[in-house]
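Let's sit down with a protein and look at its sequence and fold side by side. Which protein we use is up to you, so please pick one and set it down. Label the sequence line and the structure token line clearly, so we can match residues to local backbone shapes. Go ahead whenever you are ready, and we will take it from there:

***
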Amino acid sequence: MVSVLFMLFSILFCVCLITANVLETKQIQVGAISLTGGLIVFPVSYIINDCVCEVWGYRKARLLIWVGFLMNFFFVSLGALCDWIPGASYWTNDAGFHAIFGLAPRIAAASFIAFLVGSFVNAYVMSRMKIRDGGRHFSSRAIWSTVLGESADSLIFFPLALSGIVPTVELFKLMIWQVLLKTVYEIIVLPITICVVKALKDHEGEDVYDEGISYNVLKIFNL
């Protein structure tokens, strides 16, 4: 069984992943740092992952991650299909549409793999640290799970997607900045995350500890 709040968090999680795909197509600059627009929303998916794992446990987080993956894959596939179909004779925005929806297969594959690994690392670290700490130190595990999850995501995505295209030194810089800024993002919104987690626990009457569960990522419906 899943609650209405879990369902709403799942919807928001999927929306964040799909939105990040679209925003990633824009390059932005903050001072001397070049980034992608996806940075605005993608860290929110990790915050939702933290909330779900903290309140409902790893098994619900595992379901959330796979649902998010499938919905994102569905969206990207439809975008690619529509991009492939020839435009009407009066259509003049092929280049703009392709820039947003015409993801190269290599980049799409790298994105999907990195998302799965990073999200599961995040959920696993949250779960194990909660058991180890007896439910204390939520802030610490929220931050460390993000650092390790985002690091795994970046270590997979950038080499797979951009190796041979972007110089190795620049790839390394991109990975460092992505992890650093997403972690800072998490720290800045941490007070809000703490309030949300407390409200969820109070409303749901749940505070799951993952004692004796299987962390097999393929046991999707083992709730």
